[in-house]
Design brief:
Radius of gyration: 27 Å
Strand content: 15-25%
Number of helices: 7
Number of domains: 3
Shape: elongated
Helix content: 25-40%
Strand order of the largest sheet: 1-2-3
Structural class: alpha+beta
Order of helices and strands: HHHEEEHHEEHEEEHE
Oligomer: single chain
Number of strands: 9
């Protein structure tokens, strides 16, 4: 590298000899940072979404390239979050693209030591059958004094913070209609 090339690569020299004497513009930029482009610039499309983690409902812009999520940022048009996301919301791209993300249903048979993949239809039917059996077996219509109970203590529900308000509302309605009285969400625990 010649002396001139070395001087041109030095930010202080560019600042003093160029058009940016305060060092607030191009003089302060390295060649690497000036050649760097935002991940959002190359997206094929932008999809509006809502952060899945809590009940606040922060709006997100999901950047997609070649059918894959490349970046998720806060939506500045949102009156709720005004383009800001908390640390969990900012990292929600990892929820989609994590190499450890489970993409199939796993089932471990009684007394087995290994998990095996099963199809979603089978898993859903197994859960429904077990809930209905437990409800029928543990249903309490009235207490010993004849007071109406119409409940079951045979199952409970613990929701997760990756569900949005609408999903939690529908889950609460379902489990209440099924007679469960222990319906909770992990966000409150």
């Amino acid at each position: 590298m010649g002396a001139k090339a070395w001087l041109d690569a030095w930010p202080v020299y560019r600042q003093l000899t160029g058009t940016d004497p305060l060092g607030r513009g191009a003089a302060a930029q390295s060649r690497v940072s000036s050649d760097t482009r935002p991940r959002t610039e190359t997206a094929d499309r932008v999809v509006d979404s809502v952060c899945p983690y809590c009940a606040v409902g922060c709006a997100q812009q999901v950047y997609v390239k070649d059918g894959r999520v490349t970046q998720i940022e806060g939506d500045p048009r949102s009156p709720i979050s005004r383009g800001r996301l908390c640390p969990k919301g900012s990292a929600s791209e990892q929820l989609v693209n994590s190499p450890t993300r489970q993409t199939q249903v796993l089932y471990r048979r009684p007394f087995a030591t290994e998990w095996e993949p099963i199809d979603l239809e089978t898993a859903t039917q197994m859960v429904a059958d077990r809930m209905l059996e437990s409800r029928a077996r543990t249903w309490q219509d009235r207490d010993e004094n004849g007071q109406i109970l119409r409940r079951t203590l045979g199952f409970a529900h613990l929701g997760g913070a990756t569900l949005d308000n609408e999903e939690n509302y529908l889950i609460k309605k379902l489990f209440t209609a099924m007679g469960a009285i222990q319906v909770e969400n992990q966000a409150r625990i």
